[in-house]
Amino acid sequence: MATVEKGELTLLGEQTVVLAIHGGAGVERASMTPESETKARAAMELALRHGYEQLKQGRSAKDAVTAAITVLEDDPLFNAGRGAVFTHDGRNELDASLMDGATLAAGAVAGVHKVKNPILLARAVMEHSQHVMLAGDGAEQFAAEQGVSLVDPSYFRTERRWQELQRALQEENHQAQATREAIKHFGTVGAVARDSQGRLAAGTSTGGMTNKRYGRVGDSPVIGAGTYADVDCAVSGTGWGEYYLRVSAAREICLRMGRLGESATQAGRAVIEDEIPGMGGDGGAIVLGANGEVALPFNTEGMYRGWIGADGVPHVAIYATDALTLPTASR
Amino acid sequence: MATVEKGELTLLGEQTVVLAIHGGAGVERASMTPESETKARAAMELALRHGYEQLKQGRSAKDAVTAAITVLEDDPLFNAGRGAVFTHDGRNELDASLMDGATLAAGAVAGVHKVKNPILLARAVMEHSQHVMLAGDGAEQFAAEQGVSLVDPSYFRTERRWQELQRALQEENHQAQATREAIKHFGTVGAVARDSQGRLAAGTSTGGMTNKRYGRVGDSPVIGAGTYADVDCAVSGTGWGEYYLRVSAAREICLRMGRLGESATQAGRAVIEDEIPGMGGDGGAIVLGANGEVALPFNTEGMYRGWIGADGVPHVAIYATDALTLPTASR
After folding, report:
1. Which of A48, B139, B184, B237 is most exposed by smallest CB count within 10 Å?
2. pTM of the predicted structure, to 2 decimals
3. Cβ–Cβ below 8 Å for A138 and B213
């Protein structure tokens, strides 16, 4: 981006701020009702408005990402924060990560059980520790010291997710079915933003997979796999985490944009629509370029997704067949 | 690589198998004695011979990597397995990862306290679970179920590392010194190999940083950061993990080789000698190309490092000033 005077920068900023979110790939029409669709759309619009408010006030991309993800974590509809899926032993185990593309600062937490908004702990790790990634009890000790809000683990519990675990446990003797069930419920949430100074940020938060065990860590808390941001691009992924880990999906998308000159659409398509399904995985991602280009690739029947631009009007969609106009990239 | 008949393949294999290892960057001459140098060289030669034995018998690159790392984990000299550094609360907390470049299969474990050889657990995760990364108690439960050897946590304790923790704790009021101390002791171990069929693999194992706390996870158990392998390249890193995480160092090296056509030397230099020190980090890596090219870049005073080729003669070095001839790449 060319250097501009302060006055121009503000004007440019108002024209080019953008925020995109996802509430998870793997949405299946058969499991939805008109009521659940309406609720999901309303929740995404609320998250977009909260994030946009930060951008409109001239705050940073990471503020917008944090604000949007906090809304999605608080909504029991999504598999993050309240409403997270259950592990094999009946707990909610949460992961999150955040990255500031302007500075390459990053924070991530894995396997926490009492942190109300894991994205806020990821941010505290980024801003108030010397580390990038903290896990388990140690991460919660850090949360307590930082004054990050802790709750009783029962806060995360929803009856719907509990019943999903019971079904998964019943089906466990039928390995193939159990695997499908687990895959279906990967409704991770995430956000990417570009602020009025052209800075990018990305964040992701999840409860992981239903019936997960052995302290499984997926891609969401792994910088480079589920989340990445630099000066060229910001990415948050949602899908079968093992595949995202094996290709460092978010980092590959950003390297393709930064080093190979691919657009957000090209890079997102190459990794999400070709490489990962080619290996047998599935899922989606939200991709934002430095020029404001947004791509929302996925290879499942649906992905909760949306974006909001300078005019403050939220745009959301659920299924692959939904029409969703994307913002025009600008320089 | 061109397709060849079986007879030729064996011949080619004998000519082109290669294994490289590191025992950690950050070696400082002032803290070494002639005796400790001799011990380190002997340990590296032993690890190289054990790994080479696998390759000579026609076994896979991942077998060679696993064998070499097991030797380094068992030696109390290195910060991995026995002899690992201590956490703030006086425990040894171990991380490891392994990746098979031919299949992109990967396994990783973070924060285990009782697994004798964490690299063997990483391998069990890769081969016997549906997951890539397991952490903490859950990872140890998986180890027990898989019959991976468990030991009493006291097995890992060495007096030298304990005294290092005591010094770090004493210096903690002097933040700058404590930070330097922690950085100095990042002697992670790792290996990369190319087998007679041209398959690549990479692995890394570590005890992390002295005086680490809050369940800190570094780059070593993170696929894409401390370890990566694909058809183009195999990488294991050792250094200030937070920086390796923030650039997905191993994945970036492999993408540079695979997509930009850089050599192992070029890609290793770009990330290890330019990008990471440019951000304020330090460390090293071992990089192996599909053509057998080996690069051992680092930006510290020394890095325990070595390689062994088709003739079975180990070559090892410690300081940047040590002469070390590298194998010639071949097609």
Report:
1. B184
2. 0.93
3. yes
